[in-house]
Write a structure and sequence with these properties.
Layout lengths: L9 H10 L9 H14 L3 E7 L3 E8 L5 E3 L5 H4 L6 E3 L12 H4 L6 E9 L3 E10 L7 H23 L11 H17 L4 E8 L2 H8 L1 H18 L5 E6 L2 E7 L5 H20 L7 E8 L7 H22 L13
Antiparallel strand pairs: 1-2, 1-6, 2-3, 4-5, 5-6, 7-9, 7-10, 8-9
Helix pairs in contact: 2-5, 5-6, 7-8, 8-9
């Protein structure tokens, strides 16, 4: 078994990794979403986001393993960070670097490994996004590119930590984080020739909640609606609070008609929230959406703008139909 070497920039690499304040933190849905997606796309039992510390690899996300870390000197990912491109091991039992590793000869029985380094600040590889199987296999060119794409999204999530791109109140991404992450997710869906859709939500009467019940109650309403969105959307969808009472969701792989089903789930979730909490007011929302086809070249910022305009059109239509009601009709963006 080859003990992985340390790169010439090891000190700077470790300093950057520690500055993220991510080591030994609880599971994070943003990373778990990616490993679940990788497990499904590649049909493998194990997928991880691994961060290589001084003497260990620690898993920020790990699907299919019950451990949180392994020693660095036996890890595949410690080899992966020594190069810019993928490390692919078709059969670890036939590779002299890993054949006698306890990860191969022991109960885990790794046979196949593919990892893509996670690089920040252009040159510092802090970890790897990897998939593992207990039987030998190969990756074709398309699968290799898909693994790179997933690693780029994981990198963007790490960059989000650097940019402090999370909304402190709700725990969702903020506008900066959403635009950065959404750009990569949208590119991934286009590469896969898959449709996507962006939904724009606005809370009706939110100013009145603040004015009548106070800003603390307004914050409670925002947190409550964020929870409704988490429950209504899929684990692989990207959610954000853009600011104030505006929320967005980017749904990758959305089929025509999925938007109406998602909005129905949000409406049911809001109704349940109102029934269970009884705060003296009801949460209500307006919504618009902007689909993005496989051939479209629309940016995340443009999709937000289109869906925003659709949301306001829906809100106006609802007011004209019933001036006392703030429930919007569903009108798709054109």
């Amino acid at each position: 078994m080859d003990i992985p070497a340390h790169g010439s920039n090891e000190a700077a690499r470790i300093a950057l990794l520690r500055s993220l304040n991510i080591l030994d933190t609880p599971p994070d849905e943003r990373f778990d979403r990616l490993t679940r997606l990788a497990k499904r796309l590649f049909d493998v039992p194990i997928a991880t986001v691994s961060l290589v510390d001084t003497d260990r690899q620690w898993f920020k996300s790990c699907i299919g393993l019950s451990v949180e870390e392994t020693p660095r000197d036996i890890s595949f990912c410690a080899h992966t960070i020594l190069d810019d491109d993928l490390l692919v091991v078709d059969d670890a039992q036939l590779d002299p670097r890993f054949a006698d590793s306890p990860l191969v000869t022991g109960d885990l029985g790794i046979r196949f490994y593919a990892g893509c380094p996670l690089t920040l600040n252009k040159s510092l590889r802090v970890g790897a996004f990897c998939i593992v199987d207990k039987k030998p296999r190969k990756l074709d060119a398309t699968e290799r590119e898909l693994l790179r794409d997933l690693a780029r999204i994981a990198e963007r999530e790490l960059e989000v930590l650097q940019l402090a791109a999370t909304d402190d109140l709700t725990g969702l991404s903020n506008r900066r984080g959403f635009e950065a992450l959404g750009h990569h997710v949208l590119a991934l869906t286009k590469r896969a020739r898959s449709r996507a859709s962006l939904l724009f939500f606005d809370l009706n009467g939110f100013k009145q909640i603040n004015d009548v019940y106070g800003h603390a109650e307004g914050d409670r309403a925002l947190v409550g609606f964020a929870g409704v969105l988490r429950g209504a959307l899929r684990e692989t969808d990207v959610l954000a609070r853009l600011g104030g009472d505006e929320f967005v969701a980017l749904v990758a792989g959305a089929q025509a008609g999925d938007e109406a089903q998602i909005i129905d789930r949000v409406r049911l979730g809001v109704a349940r929230y109102n029934r269970d909490n009884r705060r003296g007011y009801d949460l209500k929302f307006s919504v618009g959406y902007a689909p993005c086809g496989t051939q479209d070249d629309t940016s995340i910022a443009e999709l937000i703008d289109i869906a925003d305009h659709a949301m306001y059109a829906n809100k106006r239509a609802a007011r004209e139909k019933s001036p006392r009601s703030e429930a919007s009709a569903l009108v798709p963006a054109q």
